[in-house]
Amino acid sequence: MPFYSFGSPRKISAASYIYYAQGCLHPDRVMQEHDFVYMLNGQWEIFQGREAFFMENDDVLILHAGQHHFGVRDCLPGTQTIYFHIGAGHKDTFQCGKETPSEGALLPPLIHGGGRPRVKLLFQELVSIWHEPAPRRDRKLDTLFELLLLELEECCGQEAHFHDEILLRSVSLLAQNPQKFFTAGELSALLGICARTLNRRFQLQYGKTFYQYQMEEKMHMVQQFLLDYPEAKLQTVAVNFGFYDEFHLNRAFRKYTGMPPGQYRKANITNFPGL
How far apart (Å, rounded) are the C-alpha atoms in residues 260 and 254? Predict the structure, then answer.
């Protein structure tokens, strides 16, 4: 499987949208750059070597540098794509060995990205910045390209804990609302599923219920807050993280860490007032 390395200096030589009003045959060529193609609308069959890849809406096709690619029939009339040509990194390779390289992404040539809108957004942003004479443009493009590689890798299911969209949205809502304690019923209603399904997803992925996961995450946040703000009153800490009051916080914190929050703060801050 092709491998694309992180941290390699690269240059984008072309990036744009293309609309094929009458349909078009893909060029017959061997490029010294990678050709990344996003299908906005339409259908197209493109060969790389002897293998044919059939693109439909929201698919991504990566034509690897140094590989022969071509078409044998026109795309559908009205097909629209986004593409960019980017230089190959010095560690990029078309055929990866048995050992998986580090600091990069293993990606098949054709990736179905219909469930991940960020793929489309990253393509659009790459094209937009490439056309702007923006300061530090190349650095921005390098960063966006590596973000795109990571997003495409997740599309392929190679990062299993990101593969479940329900978990993604759940964890995101918890992180965005540290001041709130969700019940499984409240969160599942926001996600359009039942509480039993939510708990089952958390059990399968993390080995704990949604409530247990939420409490552990809150305890991590409270521990860090206690250290970052040594003067903060416990009532303030409790309100910030969704506890009823400092007594509720005390009980939960003691159960999780084995000590009350005040003692934890004193034990972990050497210059705590009064020591």
Answer: 5
Which strands make up the sheet holding 29-30, listed edge to edge?
Answer: 29-30, 68-70, 44-48, 51-55
Identical fold between 3-161 and 165-268: no
**CATH number of the domain located at residue range(s) 165-268 in this protein:** 1.10.10.60
Which CATH architecture group holds 3-161? Sandwich (2.60)
Write out pLDDT tens, residues 4-19: 888 777 889 999 999 9
- C-alpha distances (whole Å) from 93 to each of 52, 60, 129, 253 are 20, 19, 27, 50
What are 4's strand-pairing partners? 105
Alpha-carbon dihedral of residues 221, 252, 188, 166, nearest 10 degrees?
40
pLDDT tens per residue, range 30-77: 999 999 999 999 999 999 999 999 999 989 999 999 999 999 999 999
pTM of the model: 0.60
**Confidence bin at 228 (pLDDT 50/70/90):** confident
* Three-class DSSP category at 5: strand
**Residue whose C-alpha is closest to residue 182's, from 233, 217, 232, 221:** 217
Please state the domain extents for the chain: 3-161, 165-268
- Kindly give, in sequence order, each residue whose CB lies less than 8 Å from that of residue 28, ignoring residues fewer than 6 positions away: 68, 69, 70, 71
